[in-house]
Request: fold
Amino acid sequence: MALLQSIVIYRFSGGVVLDPIADELLKTVRQELGYKEKSGQFTKFGEWYADRVQDSQFRNGAWCDMFLAWAANKADISEYVGEFAWTPSHAAWFIKQGAWTQKPEPGALVFFDWSGGSSYKGVDHVGVVERVEGTKIHTIEANVDRVWLKRKTRETDKVVGYGVPRIVKERAERDEIRSTERPFVPLPRAEAPPSSPLDVLGTPPALLAVMVLVILVLSLRVTGRRRGSHRRLPWPWNAPFTRKPAEPASGPPKVPSPRNPLAADKEPPRPRATAGRTSGARDRTTPPARPERTRVPAGPARRSTPTRRKPYDPT
Reply:
């Protein structure tokens, strides 16, 4: 259906059927035949191009390609012809579009290299083919004979190649049709992993809650230290360490051995009972009296020698 809509009525030019793009381009450039540049190489085509690209240097530049850009814009076919001021870039654009050929046809843009080179990088000039007769081509070119827009008859020995706007359009339509005919293949859906209650710990809200809690604990500790209280939070690891009192050992208290080895078997003196106590009962209200300390006289301590029984003493 799309191909049927693209069928149009062609016009003949020298016995050759013209496509609509070539027809519109040739009609536009023929209306400007006889145009001559003003002093200082100023042209209306250069002025238009300079305003379009916002660069004033093109107002007085070489205008052979700027004229074709102006004509394509006026005919509303710029997307197939291109808008350039430098001819090597224009030729490279046609090569990239796949619309570069060595066979001339009406409506095609012809690129010349006056040195006879075959590379697009050496292109010096461009025009549009009006008709082909044998080995010669009839063209309409701007900025020829230094100042004119006129018809020229050229040999093909200086031609590098031809850019065909018709092919640019055909390739664009073919790519558009192919893009609409591609089947839509849905992507396979990835199965969601089984959920777990522990997954909540890795969520952003859980991480945020942990961060807030840590900041709160640290701020409380820092605030307490700044006030000088040096208090610690009632955590188990901050509890004060207290030693348990030693349990009393079962049995009678141990009394250090005296210096006199013979008096080791003697029983230590018992404390006197205070007034008001009954024998065998312990006063629980009055604390026990501390034993009095005996003062030792100054001077060297004398050793007491135990009295030994003489062998002749009677028992």
